[in-house]
Specification:
- It is a single chain.
- Helix content is 34%, strand content 21%.
- It is of the alpha/beta class.
- It has a single domain, classed as Metallo-dependent phosphatases (Purple Acid Phosphatase, chain A, domain 2, 4-Layer Sandwich).
- The strands form two sheets. The protein has a five-stranded mixed sheet. A five-stranded mixed sheet has the order 4-5-6-8-7, covered by helices on one side.
- Helix 3 packs across helix 5 and helix 7 runs antiparallel to helix 8.
- The longest helix is centred in the middle third of the chain and has 17 residues.
Length: 229
């Protein structure tokens, strides 16, 4: 089975549509469906209608429950600035759906124990990045029993093996922050246990056009999309 892991869609339907064109058998979402982007309702609706397994992201908490997003200082003001637009764009059923997402999911695939969450096994607000010191990561993951840990949150794709756990971040579908503006995702083959990080071109111009037409102070948001950070 080929499982497409996606994360951090952030209301970017054009990017979501692009990664979904990659041949796959199943899709799993690692959180942050909305915020920042111009199409939050469409993205949430797609996840709901297609019953895609999804864990709770920090922005899902913020949008669904009105709690602080807890994101990094560099981008937090954008989350706050776009929150009213996001709330005005979605329905109560979307908020309820976000509030009911699980913090983590544990399962078995290909005979391996799989742990899925958004930030770290300890917190949706905690980052595991490609350069996070190994000792810090060991503290974050010491309570889990897993062969693979799939996370999102940092918007930076990577695969690391630490303390016997393969940690996979598929990067961000809708707002990459690793200097590559293409949508990012990962494919996990449950037979070979191989993980491939994948980048997809998408219609950034269309997404930026929606931001410029519908959202206030669009320049910074569109610049981030076009730069990839």
């Amino acid at each position: 089975m080929r499982i497409l892991f996606i994360s951090d869609i952030h209301g970017n339907k054009e990017a979501l549509d692009a990664v979904l064109q990659i041949p796959h058998d199943e899709v799993i979402c690692l959180g942050d469906i909305a915020d920042y982007g111009p199409s939050p309702a469409e993205c949430i609706e797609y996840i709901m209608e297609n019953k895609i397994v999804t864990v709770l992201g920090n922005h899902d908490v913020a949008v669904g429950s009105g709690i602080d997003c807890g994101c990094g200082y560099t981008y937090k003001h954008l989350s706050i600035a776009t929150r009213e637009y996001t709330w005005d764009s979605i329905d109560e059923k979307h908020r309820v759906f976000l509030r009911q997402l699980p913090f983590e999911i544990r399962t078995e695939l290909g005979g391996k124990k799989i742990h899925m969450t958004h930030g770290s096994p300890r917190s949706n607000y905690e980052y595991i990045k490609p350069d996070t010191p190994e000792a810090e990561v060991c503290e974050m993951i010491k309570e889990i029993d897993a062969d693979f840990l799939f996370i999102g949150h940092s918007h930076i794709p990577f695969v690391r093996e630490i303390a016997g756990v393969t940690i996979v971040n598929p990067g961000s579908v809708g707002q990459p922050r690793d200097n590559d503006p293409r949508a990012s995702c990962a494919m996990f083959d449950t037979q070979t246990l191989q993980v491939d990080l994948i980048r997809c071109e998408y219609d950034i111009g269309c997404t930026c056009g929606k931001i410029e037409t519908n959202m206030s102070d669009p320049d910074e948001l569109t610049a981030i999309l076009r730069r990839g950070y």
